[in-house]
Amino acid sequence: FCTPCLQECLKPKKPVCGVCRSTLSPGSRALDLEKQIETTETTCNGCNKKMFLSKMRSHAASCSKYQNYIMEGVKAVTKEPLHNTRNFPNRFTFPCPYCSEKNFDQEGLVEHCKALHSMDAKQVVCPICASMPWGDPNYRSANFMEHLQRRHRFSYDTFVVGDYDADEDDIMAQVLMRSLRDK
User: Fold this and answer.
1) Which pTM value belongs to this model?
2) Can you give the residue ranges of the C2HC RNF-type domain (predicted)?
């Protein structure tokens, strides 16, 4: 990573909803759910070690067999090897279409535009949409702020795993096959 991109990734983030990216208001902890996570046992898919769900994330980060298991899954659903990354557009950081400040992640771009450009009526090209295979790099949104809030309340990365050009039916079939193998 270059320094500006890394700094953008490391910025403290407000808690947001995992689906729509709306800011979460403070609430009470789900103690019953925490208790269930601490007392439910699971098995690592890499090394078959048994542990509680509460320990799984830290175990997965250090288990080389689990890392290999994940990479095998990635290879299984990837149609082409990712060794030639120069042909892939940057879908992780975006410039502001108003002031050309660079290296915003999707959430950062939405926040930046809401804070600094909410009253700007200039028609601009959405850099997020323009980076997508279906995006038109020449299309200027009549109301960019409304477009941002309607179209980019969530990240495409949440729903697309690696291949933006893949057919939806193919992806679903691959996911189903993978889930049957994991049982």
Assistant:
1) 0.42
2) 44-63
Contact 13, 23 (CB under 8 A): no
Summarised one tens digit per residue, pLDDT across range 151-169 is: 887 665 555 555 555 666 7
Q: Contact, 114 vs 26, CB < 8 A?
A: no
